[in-house]
Amino acid sequence: MVISRFRITANALEPRVRQAAKDSANVVFIPAPEKRSMAGAMLFQQAMSCLREGRISGKPVFTEDGLWEFRMKRYAASQWFSIKVAASVDGARVEKLYVILSED
Fold it and tell me: How would you classify the pairing of strands 27-30 and 93-100?
């Protein structure tokens, strides 16, 4: 018997990401932004508002680590802000969001 992974669409994942991002304890930044710096504080606020109000661009991809990886974008202050996100999903619930700050 072959078991295939459940496919999740961006439209189905978006409200779950927003729900998980309501509590910042569910969000992990990799690497962590600099503490006590204006740039770190602004990055944190931009990323959180992107998770709470942004849109998923492209299709979520299931990685070998068991996480769903995707990009979220938000238009604010006359520019686009985009972040790479990995989500730990259990059933229909997003448990943890990992914001990946370093570009590959």
Answer: parallel
Q: Cα–chain-centroid distance for residue 95?
A: 11
Which residues, 6 or more positions from 9, have their beta carbon under 8 angstroms from its beta carbon? 59, 60
Q: Report if residue 2 sits inside a domain.
A: no
Give the integer Cα–Cα distance in Å for 14 and 76.
Answer: 18
For 83-92, write each residue's pLDDT tens digit.
999 999 887 7
Q: Is residue 3 part of a domain?
A: no
pLDDT digits over 17-26, tens only?
999 999 999 9
54 lies in some domain: yes
Say if 84 falls within a structural domain.
yes
Q: How far apart are CA 101 and CA 1, in angstroms?
A: 39
Nearest to 71 by CA among 36, 98, 40: 98
pLDDT averaged over 10-residue windows placed end to end, the chain, 104 residues: 64 93 94 80 90 94 92 91 92 90 67
CATH code: domain of residue 41:
3.30.2310
